[in-house]
Amino acid sequence: MTSPAVRITNPRTDVSVVKTYVELMKLRIIELLLITTLPAMVAAAGGWPGSWLVFATLLGGTLSAAGANAINQAIDRDIDRLMSRTRGRPLPTDRVSVRAVVVFGVGLGVAGFVWLWATTNLLAATLSTVGLLFYVLVYSLMLKRHTTQNIVIGGAAGAMPALVGWAAVTNTVALPAWIMFAIVFFWTPPHFWALAIRYHEDYERAGVPMLPVVVGAKRALDHMVAYTVVLVGVSLLLYTTGVVGWIYLAVAAVAGVAFLIGTWALRDHPEAAMKYFGYSNVYLSVVFVAVAADVLILG
Amino acid sequence: MRDFTLIVGTVVVGLGLVLVLWRELAGAGERRRVGPVRDVIEVLLPVAATLALLLWVWVS
Fold first, then answer.
1. Dihedral (CA of A281, A287, A288, A292) sign
2. What average pLDDT does this structure show over A98-119?
3. DSSP state, A5?
4. So what's the pLDDT on residue A11?
5. How large is the angle between the packed helices A273-298 and A27-45, nearest 10 degrees?
6. Which residues of B are less than 8 Å from A251 in CB distance?
7. Residues of B within an 8 Å Cβ radius of A
């Protein structure tokens, strides 16, 4: 007589399940998206746009971005297993099913659209959902594994929150909003290519043609310098629209020159790529905080 | 001051776009891509969009 088989299960507590789903949302990346949304709202309103509208817009943006992040992890589950940076994520570690992740992601996206439509307006809701769809359909499915331009074009998804923030306040998308969109758009390539320089072997193993993997770090840094020059120029153009004043101009000029010097210096010290990656986050935050500070201080 | 910034900003953006085109198109042949036409479009699309944005800034 054989003893009944003892089934050893992985005890999953409610806390660990919640933690897994929170992890799928990649909230740390969303922080940066929200940093661009709020200043865009302040600039659009010419002052504080109202606490309820800010809360509603930031929550809606978070839902859309979290949905995009979750669906993206379902699409990239095969390559995430190959990369040391991502192999600890919920899907590569089999903590959750693909189906559950897709349902979760789509649910968040739909909730984001409905919430933004109900609390702000249809334009903001649509723009937020366009950002999600662009990230999933254009970046993740069409570009990421096929072209070195993946992160350049894909940067449009990450830049969308600036448009959402402006639209939530004005129900339009005016020139200053598009300039803020362009700031994030041209900030994206140097930011993510620095990450690709650091995790070069990961991307190569996964077959993702990030520019530094395909042409090497040295030549990719030439591209990073070029995009940073455009970024600095575009950031100055926001001042010409009249929505921000001299405080923004001074901060954008000094931070821009410093960022350009940092990009140039990375050519001789590519081993400092992650330090530069962190600095690029600081640069974007400083520029957008300057937008809000300028409007709130100078009126 | 705004006119001066407009000129400086435009020159810097223009310089940057020239650098982008130079670097992107010079190395186009050695990069992995689905097809050459798509690759050129992918490079030119952001450049064209930025030029349109510049034009909008100037006429507004």
1. positive
2. 97
3. P
4. 54
5. 30
6. none
7. 1-3, 5-6, 8-17, 19-20, 22-24, 27, 30-34, 38-39, 42-43, 45-46, 50, 53-54, 56-57, 60
Q: Does residue B37 surpass a pLDDT of 70?
A: no
Q: Please choose, from the candidates A262, A257, A242, A252, the residue with its C-alpha nearest in 3D space to the C-alpha of residue A284.
A: A252
Cβ neighbours of A118 (radius 10 Å): 11
Nearest to B57 by CA among A242, A276, A151: A242
What value does the mean pLDDT take over residues A19-42? Answer: 89
State pLDDT tens for residues A251-282. 999 999 999 999 999 999 989 999 999 999 99
pLDDT at residue A156 in the model: 94
Distance CA A215, CA A226 (A): 15
Q: How far is CA A160 from CA A7, A40, A108, A121, in A?
A: 48, 11, 17, 16
Quote ipTM for the complex.
0.89
Q: How many Cβ atoms are within 10 Å of A99's Cβ, its own excluded?
A: 9
Chain B CB contacts of A237 below 8 Å: 5-6, 9-10, 13, 53-54, 57
A175, A214, A230: residue with CB nearest B13: A230
A111 CB-contact burial (10 Å; exposed 0-12 / middle 13-18 / buried 19+): middle
Q: Do B42 and A229 touch (CB under 8 A)?
A: no
User: Is it the case that residue B39 has pLDDT exceeding 90?
Assistant: no
pLDDT of residue B42: 78
Q: What is the pLDDT of residues A199-231, one digit of tens each?
A: 999 999 998 999 999 889 998 999 999 999 999
Which of A148, A219, A239 is the closest to B32 by Cβ? A148
- When CB atoms are compared, the residue of A147, A231, A237 closest to B33 is A147
A28: left (phi > 0), else alpha (psi -120 to 50), else beta?
alpha
